[in-house]
Amino acid sequence: MKKLFIVFALFLLITISLGSELSMIISVTGPFQRNFNPYFAGGTGYIAAGFIYETLFYSNTKTGEFIPWLATEYKWGAGYKELTLKLRENVKWSDGTPFTANDVIFTFEILKKFPALDTPGVWKAGLSEVTKVNDYMVKMKFSTVNTLILYNIFGVYIVPKHIWEKVEDPSKFTNENPIGTGAYLLDNFSNQVILLKKNPNYWNASKIKVDQIRIPAFSGNESAQLAVANGEVDWAGINYPQIEKLANKDIKFWFPEGNPVFLFFNLSKDPFKDATLRKAFAYAINTDMLIKIGMTNYAVPTNPTVIKQGYSYLIDERLKKDWWKYDPKKAETFFAQAGFKKGKDGILAKGNYKLSYELLVPAGWTDWIAVCELLSQQMREYGVELKVTPIDYGEYLQRIRNKNFDVVLSWANYGATPYNFYDNFLNSSNAFVGSNRGGWIDKETNELLAKIKETNDINTRKVIMSRLQKIVIDNVPAVPLYYNPVWFIYSTKNFKGWPNETNPYVEPRITGMDKIFLVMNLEPVK
Predict the structure, then answer these.
(1) For residue 89, what are the contacts with CB-CB under 8 A and spacing of at least 6?
(2) Residue 436 is part of which domain span?
(3) Lowest mean pLDDT, pick from 1-10, 218-227, 292-301, 411-420
(4) For residue 416, what pLDDT is reported?
(5) 236 in a domain, yes or no?
(6) 13 assigned to some structural domain
(7) Taking Cα atoms as reference points, which of 94, 95, 73 lies closest to residue 84?
């Protein structure tokens, strides 16, 4: 009887253990490197950022909330040129050292000293000084008024001073044995599988119901997709064509709107300086077909303002009458108004300008290449020749930066809010080097973007956003095609509490703080 009890107890223990182990796919780029620097853009860096290292507040881009994390309060002062942050007390680094203001100040200082680390762009955005008020309070000063800088500040992962101050160059630090404040500790590392275990001394441990996280490496989508189909993973941030046909009924998916994808024109060149010609393209493109066929119906439709659903209150309803949509007759009218006529070869031309160009796209991006092929077919009907040209990703980015292109399929980083998106997409400081890939340069646009940063008042911002929407609608800096999906596949076999279309409490990204907020909402299925 005693032996039977022991066997039953062991079985129960194993069941509980397995039930609280979450398996997830974070990267499909091959074996892991042992690099847990949270500022490293790669699989292990993504693991570190959120699971092991944390930010002062969590900026939930799906709901627009700032959720207290390593800091509990913030307060503006001096006409938005100062920010005071109250830090959470009784937080410890995983080696038992107390977390204090010294760690916060040190982190921001190394981002200043080593700009390669400053991926959130806090110093570029106007931060000028970070000082200590006491052990649990810091004050930040800014050179300019920029209320949107909160999103930059809350994108900084705080690192331990007592560890990192011994590192000669933190931008090259591989941080093989990470010490963080986060919910998880590195339990075991191999280049094929990473195991994390729950931090028993985590400041918010009661929120963590997932005891272990298992992260296997994959060398491509195919092997990752097979693991999903076999029920081997609970969460996968990958593309899976026709996932709705999977026989495994535990597998669910939700692909919410991510970064918008555009047809960008090189606005520094003729004939694309002409807004009438750009508007012709906007009316000519059947975006529904691009989504349905090119993106296998997984991309999310957008609108000319590119304001996401959660922020629809910012859309100026009065401008909807001017929104463009697929209309071949109007497209032909605008091509004619721009002065283009078909030549003997059937291609539209005006003087020395013939609408025949390379359409650049990254090589290997099969879904985007399919979209480009469809775009080429559609535009051929109007007399526009777009020659689909897949090129190496590095060359692709370099050619955009060097203005060495005519037409390119690319994306813009949306950021936390439509305010951030418009700044990314339209600010002349980002022309060709950031999300303003076509090079929109306009004095009025820059002035309006600056005014958004000078206020926290929603009504004032709505007025400014209305004026920016009109600029976008009238001038078509680029043609928005769709939102790239945030790939999110999950299994209900082992855990419940997943976000979905009916409960969209978080943008389910495998990068950043979103993933730990999501994990905090999971519970093992009993």
Answers:
(1) 136
(2) 258-485
(3) 1-10
(4) 87
(5) yes
(6) no
(7) 73
Is 247 found in the same domain as 136? no
Residue 310: predicted pLDDT = 81
Q: Which two tokens stand for residue 419?
A: 């305010």
Separation between Cα atoms, residue 408 and residue 141, nearest integer Å: 40
Take residue 450 and report the two structure tokens written for it: 């600056």
The helices-and-strands tally (H runs, E runs) of the chain is 15, 23
Domain boundary among 176, 191, 210: 176
> What does DSSP assign to residue 267?
T
Regarding whether 500 and 442 lie in a shared domain, the answer is no
> 365: pLDDT confidence band, cut at 50, 70 and 90?
confident
Across the range 315-326, mean pLDDT stands at 96
- Residue 132: give its domain's CATH number: 3.90.76.10
Same domain, 320 and 401: yes
Q: Which amino acid is at 222?
A: E
Please state whether beta strands 193-198 and 212-216 pair in parallel, antiparallel, or not at all (unpaired).
antiparallel
Helix (H) or strand (E) holding 195: strand 193-198
Number of folded domains that form the chain: 3
User: 479 lies in a domain?
Assistant: yes
Q: Are residues 115 and 208 in the same domain?
A: no
**Which pair of tokens denotes residue 272?**
């694309």
Quick one: tokens of 381? 């009907």
Contact yes or no for 194/183 (Cβ under 8 A)? no
For the chain, report the end-to-end CA distance as a whole number of angstroms. 26
Q: Do 102 and 132 contact (CB within 8 A), yes or no?
A: yes
State the sign of the Cα–Cα–Cα–Cα dihedral 421, 423, 429, 432.
Answer: positive
Is residue 215 located within the same domain as residue 247?
yes
Asked if 170 and 211 sit in the same domain, the reply is no
At 56 the pLDDT is 98
**C-alpha dihedral (364, 368, 370, 373), degrees to nearest 10:** -110
223: Cβ–Cβ under 8 A, 6 or more apart, which residues? 28
CA–CA gap between residue 233 and residue 228 (Å, rounded)? 6
Q: What is the pLDDT of residue 415?
A: 87
3-state helix/strand/coil string of 406-435: CEEEEECCCCCCHHHHHHHHHCHHHECCCC
pLDDT exceeds cutoff 80 at 318: yes
- Distance between CA atoms of residues 517 and 50, nearest Å: 9
Mean pLDDT, residues 171-195 taken together: 96
- The rounded distance, in Å, linking the Cα atoms of 56 and 154 is 6
Q: What is the pTM of this model?
A: 0.86
At 192, which CATH number?
Answer: 3.40.190.10
Same domain, yes or no: 226 and 301: no
Q: What pLDDT is recorded for position 12?
A: 40
Judge if 64 and 154 occupy the same domain: yes
Q: What is the pLDDT of residue 266?
A: 98
The alpha carbon torsion through 104, 105, 111, 112 (nearest 10 deg) reads 160
